[in-house]
C-alpha cells in the first residue's frame, strides 16, 4: 500500500530530519511535498485535492507542525478542505485538545519518539487501508530469511527464529538452536515481514517469537521481563516496554 505524504513544517532541519526518517524506515510512505507556512500549505492542498489526480495526487497523510511561519496550522482547516489523515507534531502540549477537535489522528511531541512515530504510522496505515478497502501489509511476510555467513548464504526458516534484536545499529536473528546471524534489514522492516500472530515487537530493540517465551515477570513501571525457554540464550534485553505492555498481554491472551 503506497501512502502519499505531505510534511508541513516551518523549521528546515526538523523537516529534513522527518523526511529522512520516513524515507529510511517507512518505504510505503512516499513524500510528495513539503511546505512551511499556512499560505504555502493552503496553495498546495488546493492544487492537490483532486484537481488533477494523475499529475497532482492528493496526500493520504499529513505530518503537520502546529506553529508555522505565518500563523497556526489550524488556520489551514479554515481555508481548504483537508481530506488526508493528519498527524500533528509540536513541542507544546497545550494544542492537544484542539488537534483532536480537528480530527487529528495522532499528536506527537518534539523531539519525536521513534516508538510513538511507529504507532502513529501504524494507525495511519490501518485507517487509510480501511478507507481504500484493503489492509494489505506494506511488506510481504516471509517464510525464510537468506543470511550471509562469510562467503555463504544460509536460508533460515522463520519457524526456527526465536527472536530478532538490534544493537549498535545492526540487526540480528537468533535461532532456537542458538545460532546468531547478522541481517541487513532494520527491525521496522523485519516487523512487517513476519506473521504478527507469531511474533511481537516487545521494544524498540527486540521482536520475539511466542514459541520462545517460557514465562513473564511483572516489574516496576508496568513492564514485563521475559524468560526464554531452556536452551535459548538471551543475547539482548528482553523487557517489554511500558508502551507495549498492554498490547503484549493482549497478544499473549488471544
Description:
- With 254 residues, this protein is an alpha/beta fold.
- The protein has 2 domains: 3-132, Rossmann fold; 144-253, OB fold (Dihydrolipoamide Acetyltransferase, E2P) (Beta Barrel).
- It is 30% helix and 33% strand.
- It has 7 helices and 17 strands.
- Strands 2-1-3-6-7 form a 5-stranded parallel beta sheet. It has a 5-stranded antiparallel beta sheet with strand order 12-11-10-14-13. A 3-stranded antiparallel beta sheet has the order 15-16-17.
- Helix 4 links the parallel strand 6 and strand 7 (106-109).
- The protein is elongated, with a radius of gyration of 21 Å.
How do the helices and strands line up, and which of them pair or pack?
Layout: E1 3-8, H1 12-25, E2 29-35, H2 38-48, E3 61-65, E4 67-68, E5 71-72, H3 74-79, E6 85-90, H4 96-101, E7 106-109, H5 114-132, E8 144-149, E9 152-157, E10 161-167, E11 170-175, E12 180-183, H6 187-193, E13 199-203, E14 206-209, E15 213-219, E16 223-228, E17 239-240, H7 242-253
Parallel strand pairs: 1-2, 1-3, 3-6, 6-7
Antiparallel strand pairs: 4-5, 8-9, 10-11, 10-14, 11-12, 13-14, 15-16, 16-17
Which properties best describe this structure?
OB fold (Dihydrolipoamide Acetyltransferase, E2P), elongated, Rossmann fold, alpha/beta, five-stranded parallel sheet, 7 helices, five-stranded antiparallel sheet, 254 residues
Amino acid at each position: 500500500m503506497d501512502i502519499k505524504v505531505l510534511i508541513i513544517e516551518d523549521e528546515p532541519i526538523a523537516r529534513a530530519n522527518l523526511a529522512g526518517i520516513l524515507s529510511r524506515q517507512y518505504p510505503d510512505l512516499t513524500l510528495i511535498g513539503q511546505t512551511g507556512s499556512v499560505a504555502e500549505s493552503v496553495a498546495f492542498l488546493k492544487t492537490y485535492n483532486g484537481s488533477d489526480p494523475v499529475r497532482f495526487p492528493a496526500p493520504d497523510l499529513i505530518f503537520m507542525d502546529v506553529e508555522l511561519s505565518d500563523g497556526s496550522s489550524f488556520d489551514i482547516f479554515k481555508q481548504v478542505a483537508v481530506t488526508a489523515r493528519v498527524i500533528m507534531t509540536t513541542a507544546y502540549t497545550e494544542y492537544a485538545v484542539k488537534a483532536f477537535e480537528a480530527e487529528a489522528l495522532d499528536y506527537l511531541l518534539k523531539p519525536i519518539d521513534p516508538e510513538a512515530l511507529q504507532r502513529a504510522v501504524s494507525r495511519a496505515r490501518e485507517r487509510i487501508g480501511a478507507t481504500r478497502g484493503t489492509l494489505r501489509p506494506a511488506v510481504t511476510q516471509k517464510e525464510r530469511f537468506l543470511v550471509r555467513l562469510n562467503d555463504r548464504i544460509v536460508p533460515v526458516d522463520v519457524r526456527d527464529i526465536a527472536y530478532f534484536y538490534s544493537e549498535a545499529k545492526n540487526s540480528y536473528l537468533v535461532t532456537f538452536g542458538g545460532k546468531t546471524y547478522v541481517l541487513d534489514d532494520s527491525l521496522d522492516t523485519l516487523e512487517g515481514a513476519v506473521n504478527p500472530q507469531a511474533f511481537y515487537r516487545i521494544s524498540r530493540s527486540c521482536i520475539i517469537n511466542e514459541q520462545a517465551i517460557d514465562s513473564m515477570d511483572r516489574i516496576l513501571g508496568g513492564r514485563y521481563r521475559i524468560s526464554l525457554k531452556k536452551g535459548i540464550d538471551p543475547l539482548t534485553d528482553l523487557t517489554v516496554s511500558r508502551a507495549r505492555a498492554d498490547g503484549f498481554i493482549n497478544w499473549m491472551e488471544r
